Amino acid sequence: MIKAILHALVLMTILAPAHGTERAKNVILFIGDGMGPTVLTATRLQFLGPGGQLEVDKFPHLAKVRTYSLNDYVTDSAAGATAMASGMKVNNGVIGPWKHRKGNPEKPVLGTTILELASKAGLATGLVTTVESFHATPAAFYARNKSRKQYGEIVNSMFKSSADVILGGGDRYIQNFEKYSQEKTDFTITRGGFQARDCINKKIVGVYSPASFPFIIDRPKGHMDLPRMTDMALKCLLAKKKKGVFLMVEAGRIDQALHARNIPAALHETKELDQTIKNTLVLLKRTGHLKNTLILVTADHDTGGLAINGPVGTPKSLLRKENGKYTSIKTRHYSGKGPDFRVLRLSTDRPDMKLEEIPFTTHTGTDVNLYGMGPGSDKVKGTVENTEIFTIMKNSLGL
Ligand SMILES: [Zn+2]
Predict the structure, then answer these.
(1) What's the pTM?
(2) Where are the alpha helices (DSSP H) in 57-189?
């Protein structure tokens, strides 16, 4: 009798979800680089009006995320992505779970990433970005380097990574790899679109721009975009019929638009990410994967300290079309010549300085949003460390 009870208890322990978390078969992590909470509000105001709903507004779970790095209140993209990818806080500028070991600097402390754990456990894995595929955010999932600027070394790490699909920009470096590198790789490089059936038995690096993608507002018609890349990557990973899927999708240019104080560009990039999430949910539902997929949406940090200030009325367009081209907010608001731009203005850390005298804006240390849906997303609540995002994904996959 006692033996039977013990046997039942052991069985219950084995079958119980890890850490009380519901198990997910797939995890998709969406990252808006620099997408602070106000950028999302501004995107909603601009495109949907104050009562509108972005796709992320419909998510059932929401938390605030602390983004500080190991050595600064304000993180850079490398340390921010590393915390989410590996659960390890590192110094700004460091790519991947890599830490100096005291007394033995030659042998750094190395961690592992969610992509590597997932690959090892038999899941199909992928990375998608609108910047270079060896840029800080995607690189934090496969590389370890004390400097994010070691692009040559990071590209080599990319071509040795356990990912199945890596899509983004950065062709200049990838061409160099093809021409000069002695490193062997299992990846096939493509510069065109592909079908799921073309990649079932292949590892693919897709490259669609010499460097970062052009901003959406400048992008030529027919240029590859985030929704299309995400669709190709997810269909490819699902077609492999492995134990599940891990996919990271980054809208990488929100940050760069905000650095350049190009608010319209930032809002269009954010809108594209939201549309990508919407399309992904439709695809998951259609293929019967929605219920067993954990979906998280977050940012590595805020950029630009965007503020929505008065006078508040019906939001008007933030975009001004001149000679067929959109011009950005830039100095217009502050010079008082742009009534269309009243709804938004950039706050600065130098209130004594006029905005137009500041050449660029920087990251801020504010908390960012984390949205969650699907198995394991009940852990998305309260205020969490950015490293907790790794833990939530890991536990939900039972890794
Ligand atoms: Zn960033």
Answers:
(1) 0.86
(2) 77-86, 114-120, 136-139, 151-160, 171-180
Ligand 1 centre to CA of 299 (Å) is 8
Residues measured by CB to lie within 5 Å of ligand 1, the ion: 33, 77, 255, 300
User: How many degrees, rounded to 5, is the angle at CA 304 between CA 77 and CA 131?
Assistant: 40
Confidence band, pLDDT 50/70/90 cuts, at residue 10: low
What distance in angstroms lies between residue 367's CA and the mean position of ligand 1's atoms?
13
54-96: pLDDT as tens digits: 999 999 999 999 999 999 999 999 999 999 999 999 999 999 9
Distance CA 232, CA 23 (A): 25
Say yes or no: domain 26-307+368-397 is CATH 3.90.950.10. no
34 CA to centre of ligand 1 in angstroms: 5
Overall average pLDDT of the 158-186 stretch: 95
Residue 301 CA to ligand 1 centre (angstroms): 6
359-378 pLDDT tens trace: 456 898 999 999 999 999 99
SS3 state of residue 47: helix
- Give the distance (Å) from ligand 1 centre to CA of residue 80: 7
